[in-house]
Amino acid sequence: MAVDKELLERDLYGLLGIGEKASEKEVRGAGGSGRAPIVPSLPPSEIFHQLSQALAVLTDAAARAAYDRVRRAKKEAAARTQKLDEKRKKVKLDLEAREREAQCQENEEEEVRITRSLEEEIIRLREEGSRQLEEQQRLVREQIRLEREQRSRGEHGGARSPRLQGLRWKCRKEDETRGGYSKDVLLQILQKYGDVLNLLISSRKTGSAVVEFATVKAAEMAVKNEVGLLNNPLKISWLEGQPRSHPSTVLPDSTSQPRTSQASVVSERDYESLVMMRMRQAAERQQLIEQLQREDEEESPHT
Measuring CA to CA, which residue among 18, 73, 20 is closest to residue 51? Predict the structure, then answer.
């Protein structure tokens, strides 16, 4: 008999309550003994119809063989589908795991690159700072060496560089303005001739100070041209001996134009920025020189 497609979708063995390997006699016995399971949702007539179809198929050898082939094929297909689904699921999980691992590795590599870049930048800055510090220390040590050689030549009768000068002006002890000459005013007056290395105002003797210029030329120009404030003239004299005479250098209009306290300060405003910068540089330089001198003094007993 021909096998109905609707029958292929049903579990005929289950309708009769028998196993797949049941004999024809067992099939007929199941269909006539009423051992088939009851389906409450179906009316009795429908149940009888399905049982009759199942019995008809399973008692016909050709129909049963065809039904069994379809049944096995469906089971095999279901098994393959399940296996494929499991394989796909495993592949998907493996792919996601590999993607996570690749992302983690990429993040780690990026972190390593950032860390290495930061370390290289720190090393570069340290090297640059060390080179700058070494160069600054070298220059300061060279300057200290030259100053020591100059002092040594002076102690052995050699000529000393006449850069040190004394400053004097009128000032009463009770005068808080120091006769109009504060350290800033003196620097403004003197630094237009050149760099001032040191300026010391006497705390014991009023109206007195000592100035050291960086060059002899600047010291000579200050001696020959500077008169200070009009209402309180400034006297500048050599403390280390006057240098050999040479053609004098006079600042233009140094004596022809009158000076006043206000005019002197105004004429020096052009130097304000440069003066402040030089003062800071001189202070930093002096601190570094003193530190290196202390280090040399500490090392000298062991040498």
Answer: 18
**Per-residue pLDDT tens over the stretch 262-276:** 444 444 444 455 556
pLDDT at 56: 87
Q: Cα–Cα distance between 34 and 51 in angstroms, integer?
A: 10
At residue 198, does pLDDT exceed 80? yes
CB 159 within 8 A of CB 153: yes
DSSP single-letter state for residue 208: E
What average pLDDT does range 147-173 have in this prediction? 70
What's the predicted TM-score (pTM) here? 0.32
Q: Distance between CA 171 and CA 202 in Å, rounded?
A: 12
> Which parts of the chain are beta strand (E)?
164-168, 196-201, 208-213, 228-229, 232-233, 235-238
Is the predicted pLDDT of residue 287 greater than 70, yes or no?
yes
pLDDT at 64 over 80: yes
The letter for the amino acid at 5 is: K
Residue 272 CA: distances (Å) to CA of 18, 223, 260, 285? 116, 22, 18, 20
Q: Alpha-carbon distance 268 to 275, whole Å?
A: 10
**CB contact at 8 A, 219 and 299:** no
Q: What pLDDT sits at residue 155?
A: 54
Q: Would you give the end-to-end CA distance of the chain in angstroms?
A: 123
DSSP 13-39: HHHHT--TT--HHHHHHHHHHT-SPP-
Tell me the angle at which helices 61-155 and 44-58 cross, rounded to the nearest 10 degrees.
Answer: 90
278-300 exposure pattern, b = at least 16 Cβ within 10 A, e = fewer = bbeebeebeebeeeeeeeeeeee
